[in-house]
Design goal:
The protein is of the alpha+beta class and about 140 residues long. It has helices spanning about 5-10, 15-30, 70-80, 100-115, 135; strands at about 40-45, 50-60, 85-90, 120-125, 130-135.
Length: about 140
């Protein structure tokens, strides 16, 4: 499902995790209250200038996990002609530390992004109060 974003938001360059979080925080707060206790997975599709082409809600999971299917992530990237990706998912518990599964899945997406020349720029785990950036934390460099 495509999230509606203003033209002003789409024109901003997604160069900082703080900006990405601010955009996603508004999106998270607008979601149906019934699903606030479930994890969601979004993919932010970017152009070469790091401007948002589209923001897609790919999956709604359970209170502890969300499905992150690489085929769906890259399928939507190809369809929307994105050249870079940012993945975002929420942790309703408020615990922002990535699980082993989060790290493994992110590594897989990074490798597939390299193969398809659609790099993963960052992955954020968000809550309504704060966020964790894989890029800022150095997890992309390991």
């Amino acid at each position: 499902m495509t999230e509606k974003l203003s033209k002003k938001v789409k024109r901003q360059k997604m160069q900082s995790s703080r900006l990405i979080y601010r955009i996603m925080q508004k999106t998270l707060k607008q979601k149906d209250k019934l699903s606030q206790d479930k994890e969601h997975l979004w993919v932010m599709l970017l152009d070469n200038s790091l401007q948002i082409k589209s923001l897609e809600l790919l999956s709604i999971g359970t209170i502890k996990e969300v499905l992150s299917n690489p085929m769906e992530i890259f399928s939507i990237a190809f369809q929307k002609r994105a050249v870079k990706l940012i993945l975002i998912h929420n942790h309703p518990s408020g615990n922002l530390l990535p699980s082993a599964e989060d790290i493994d899945n992110t590594d897989q997406i990074i490798q597939l992004g390299k193969m398809h020349d659609i790099p993963l720029v960052d992955k954020l785990i968000i809550s309504t109060k704060d966020y964790f950036s894989f890029q800022d934390s150095g997890l992309f460099e390991e």
